[in-house]
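User: Quick one: structure for sequence A, then sequence B.

Assistant: Sequence A:
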Amino acid sequence: MDNDKIKDFYNDFVSYQTKSGINERIFTLYKKMKSLGLKSSSNVLELGCGIGVMTKLLASFVKEGYIEAVDLSDKSVEFAKTKITNKNVSLFTDDVVGYFPKKKSFDFITLFDIIEHIPIELHPDLFKNLSKIADENTKILIHIPNPDFIEYHQKDESAWLQIVDQPIPLQTIVNNAETNGLQVTNFDTYSIWVENDYQFFVIQKKKEYKKVELSKQRNLVQKVVNRLKNIFISIRYN
């Protein structure tokens, strides 16, 4: 399927998106980013920003850093620009598969509920580009519907699906990552609206493993707390 048809679909999708706003899924992803180290000074590349709902939420917290947000739909980006005027936020219309950002270094690259809408034959190019953009400290965050959930909709509730809405198996993501010098460092299947409906990935540049002893990284208070915890476990369970 060509990009023009996909672009037209999402241009027509703007009115629907404006009604949904910040929902539980979006806020859950925002909290996940904070738990992974999102700071006011973080630089974030948001690939597939839509009308900027997540962008605006991020901009409310990221005050000293920079947010670069991109979407294929020009109407979505135009709408986002009317709602987000922060000087540290830049919005662009482009194809996320081969997009190369204006900023050189990012703490986070997000693809939230995006790659299931990108034809799967383009995923090798997408991951190749992600590997070029990311540095050793970048966290690439991918969120997708559980592939089993999409397959269920394909059989029984196809009206819920978008113009491109395909199941993305775990192994496909792992293979595309590893082929391009990346690795999945965290993976979780979890529930938002129905049981096990979403999957969340943290992907980073593959690095040589180094043995790092956690005990040497703890401060005095953390060492005391850890010691007390071990004493409690020993007394309680031995």
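Sequence B:
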Amino acid sequence: MNRTKNKIELITGLDIGSTAVRIAIGQQSFGEKGVELQIVGAVEVPAEGINRGSISSIEECVSSISNALEQAERLVGVPIEHAWVGISGTHIESQESRGVVAVAKSNGEIAEEDVARAVEASRTVATPLNYEILHVLPRSFTVDGQTGIKDPVGMTGIRLEVETKIIQGVTQHIKNLTKAVYRTGIDIDDLVLSILAVGDTVVTSRQKDLGVAVVNIGGSTTSMIVYEEGDIIHTAVFPIGSEHITNDLAIGLRSPIDVAERIKIEYGACIPKNISKKEMVDLSSVGGGVNETVELKYIAEIIGARMEEILERINTELMKIGRSGLLPAGIVFTGGGAKLSGLIDLSKEKNRLPASLGYPIDLVSITDKVNNLSFATAIGLVKWGANINQRGRGRQSRIKSVERVSGQVKNWFKSLVP
């Protein structure tokens, strides 16, 4: 399809996962509650050339993305020219930083420009070799020694400090991802840490204030983000996902991978003690030429063991920041791996915290895929883009100040492509 200038302004989220490439498309319109975000389409195609969030074959990855774009364009009827692209993987790192500047105005009134300069100053942190900064996220500001300020704009002072969290990724991974996207013919609005977009989509401000962890169980990785008092206090990505459950089933049942995947989807459960030994599954019902009957309890034992490992890793990350069992709003699960029956009860038992599934909030949709946990990242990217667009129309918020600064990396993205 020829890519001409859009007559309809679309916001596109592109989630390039290890098992699937997913695209969600949104539109902003004025409704009864002001500006509303509507998801007008979502598509999913199998992914090739991606492993653990990183590109393993540029050509195969480009083909998968192009296939998804073609389906999305047919669905919405207009060309897709640009997208907000998610990035994840075990190469993602985060660290704390601080920036300090003198307030520019002679009367000491702090302006947006002062905030932007302070955030920019925090970017001078020593970045590990071969890493590039993806996000600079303000946690709190200090004005002339007064700490704990969330938005200093309009206040008066001489010295402005900001504490930030720096999110960074390996240059080579970023280069390969951006190269694959640009080769499909679309532009990148920005690269966004996937779990950051998900977190802003599935939990409320109240939950972030109380303390909550958002966990996205993907195909080959699980990512998490922890909030407290409205701020991000921790992020992590570890190399275990729902594909590992499929592999475990294939080994335990001596079945082909595709059969194991269907068994996981149709009969997957996490808590074997809730299942009677008398309950049996005829594997021939899922195809693949496997003619065998196995206990449903045995399937749940295989799945439960791997899911417990994921939950243990989550708890280990919470222990690192002293929040094990200490998040009042609990853990919110999303991603395709969160569909497994019994996950919520197992998490409550193992992690001693409230647990729930996370679905997008504050948007409307004409597609039922908005309630498909697998689309959490793609939809989160749409909402992230919509929020940036909306802030651009009004007064710059402290987060917008960051995006204005970190948005400079878009030019750097293009410089990576020959």
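The chain has a mean pLDDT of 89. Residues 296-320 form the longest helix (25 residues).

User: Thanks, that's what I needed.
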